Amino acid sequence: MDDDGLVLNLASNDVSAKRFVSVKKSGKWTDRLKAKRVAEKKRKLPQKQSHVHGDDELDESPRPVKRARLADPPKSPATAPKPPAAAAAKPKPSKNFISSLFTSNPVMKPTEALATPTPASGPSNAPVTDSSTFLGLGLDPLLVTHLQSKLNIEKPTSIQRASLPLLLSADRTRDVFIQSQTGSGKTLSFLLPIIQDLLPLSRESYIDRSIGTLAIIIAPTRELAKQISDVLESLLTLRLHNPDNPEEDVRLTRWMISGLLTGGATRTHEKARLRKGLPILVSTPGRLLDHLQNTSCFNVGKCRWLVLDEADRLMDLGFEETITGILKGIDGRRNLAQKAAEEGNTMDVGGWDWSRRRRTVLCSATIREDVQKLAGQALLEPAIVKGSTAEDGAAEGAEEKFAAPAQLQQKCVVVPLKLRLVTLVALVRSLVSKAVARQGQSVKIIVFLSCTDSVDFHWDLLRKTSMDDDDTANDPSDDDENEEEDGDGEGDDKRERKPKRDAIEGRSALLPNTSLFRLHGSLATHTRLASLKGFSHSSTNPASVLLCTSVAARGLDLPHVRAVIQYDLPTEGGATEHVHRVGRTARLGARGEAWAFVAPSEETWVDWVQEKTNATLARVGVDAVLRGGFGGGNAKEYEARATQVQTAFEHWVLKSSEHAELARKAFTSHVRAYATHPGDEKHMFHVRHLHLGHLAKAFALREAPSTMKGPQTSAHIKFKSNSKSKGSGKHRGDGMDVDTSRTEQRMEHAVRQQGKLTKKGGMAVSSGANEFQQASTADLERMAAAFSRR
Ligand SMILES: Nc1ncnc2c1ncn2[C@@H]1O[C@H](COP(=O)(O)OP(=O)(O)OP(=O)(O)O)[C@@H](O)[C@H]1O
């Protein structure tokens, strides 16, 4: 760490009362000249009163008395302001610190104001407003009553209106492929028919959980599996009243025990539950296959339902072979069970209709080639169900695309690399203050970052950076009380047995009224689930911010998310991933806004994503965002405020080698992740286009780490697969099934090849095909037609 003579004068957490001060500044001679001129100008100007303020409070108080520069002639002890501790300990030569944040940035195109509205559209994923009812769609009155009375669900959504009649029908000859917008209620679309189908079993004869597993739902991540399992529980804990016999409370669902297998618990514990019987199972793919192969008491021979949720994500994560194994495993066990029943070698009581085939439901946002292949393998004569209709905002005749909800306000801000970090802080501040100003509304914001190291770094940076001189950690999440034990005694996974305890909720001196959470695949399952729970239900502060990787992009239904910020644009999944990420807000007809941080070299991404998703992204100027978060009547004021904040960040990083290492690691991992953008996106995202020195600023570093220095070419980036990076790389999916070293290799491969990438078995391989190509509806129709001719 070089000694650059940084001296801070940031004496309290109130940003408005601070000024950034004197630091020796190295850099280009032009910068130094500019600094000198500005300093001279300042000296000449009369001491104006400043009202630099944050959105949360308007600070009209006069600027504190200007502190004497250290090299000024000594004043009398009574009048001389006390120098900050750091300065006192280490006096520096007098040179004004002029931030280089606002110099040498690319010239920005003029943009619209912060308040520029995006075209207003009616909600496209809300419950329908026509005369459709759940009853009319064929749902059992018991379930309808329960939905209304306990879950407050009155009207179906368009995907439920389209899928329920098919899935509830007694004609079970066709499987179903569901494609619909985010937040449109797909989960109930498959859970309700499963429950309705199983309900009569307890009426027909005595039944208990020893019947085994009758329905399996597979989800790509642990969080999603847990969420589906929670919705299922809420449906099963019903005390269903039998209208034919109102005297009698019949718990028709008493035997329908649901189970969750995600690899977070011990196999022994899961085996014991499977032995007792779990009629409805929610699982991640790896652990399910494991039990199918190794748990003899896993009674799945009578399985009637199989749901593959987020099928395209399952493919992305390389679960193709796992799913094939699962299909074979289920079929094999069914054949054995049927044979045993026919030969009378079974303890089962009563008959079982073996002629009835299993129904398979596949949910997917896109109908890519690999998803079509999976559908071909798993589905029989699939009926294709779509939630999107003309009423959902799709213009007639327009090509159907996987689009974000129509009511979602999408915005983008082109941010010079050096300004990224302070712009993020400004945006969060302004979103929070606006929501709080609106009758103290609570607000939840999700921030997507490129990799786990970056999430960890920003989590620490935001929580621990102080505007105080002594810079003691200001976040109570450092206390043991706020920390969660890794694992819960159930973890049999060595990776999860870290002696360290993870904090769940944090606070930042820079983000008033805000609780911070984080989520990524390298955290222990227990921590991940606790973070999600905390983010969803925290009442400590009116605002909650979740810093996360793409692990949170799909399927998660987190209540009241007001905004999604893509601080880093998706490296995998292209436009589809973008739609999933922004779909964490504006769910079920609710309003929401989505922000994308775009580097000047990435500007063509805006047109690209608009074209791919039929969306309009309103362009907002970075100056408008900075002003919104830091306040100030003119550019100089918010620039000063932004500089103070940046300086505080840099100060924290310089404070210890541990912090600096965290920043360097985050920077390096981020650049590596950046290099994994697929070949057909390289014109928009190429490491060569990044000014690494400027990017370093966004990690509060004064310069790019030495391994990254040199000409701005990707060829100069070093990729090491050492044990350190293996342990801290990004994990996707349920965090167990993706090997970080593989990711490292993929990244290296991506940089070397600079070619087009596609994935097979979770690995990136060279191919001429477009990885993220979306098949048209016509493709699926053709595929379905081909199946029906078989
Ligand atoms: N008919 C309905 N009326 C009111 N709320 C509903 C209805 N159907 C579902 N919901 C609620 O809507 C929310 C979103 O549902 P769900 O998570 O199933 O959406 P999704 O389509 O699977 O989204 P994603 O594509 O992001 O996974 C849930 O909180 C759910 O309880």
From TrEMBL:
Residues 132-161 form the DEAD-box RNA helicase Q domain. Residues 52-63, 492-505, 731-751 have a biased composition (Basic and acidic residues). Keywords: ATP-binding, Helicase, Hydrolase, Nucleotide-binding, Ribosome biogenesis, RNA-binding, rRNA processing. GO terms for biological process: rRNA processing. Residues 118-129, 767-777 have a biased composition (Polar residues). Residues 468-491 have a biased composition (Acidic residues). A motif (Q motif) lies at residues 132-161. CDD domains: DEADc_DDX31, SF2_C_DEAD. Residues 85-94 have a biased composition (Low complexity). It is found in: Nucleus, Nucleolus. RNA helicase. PANTHER family: RNA HELICASE. This is ATP-dependent RNA helicase.
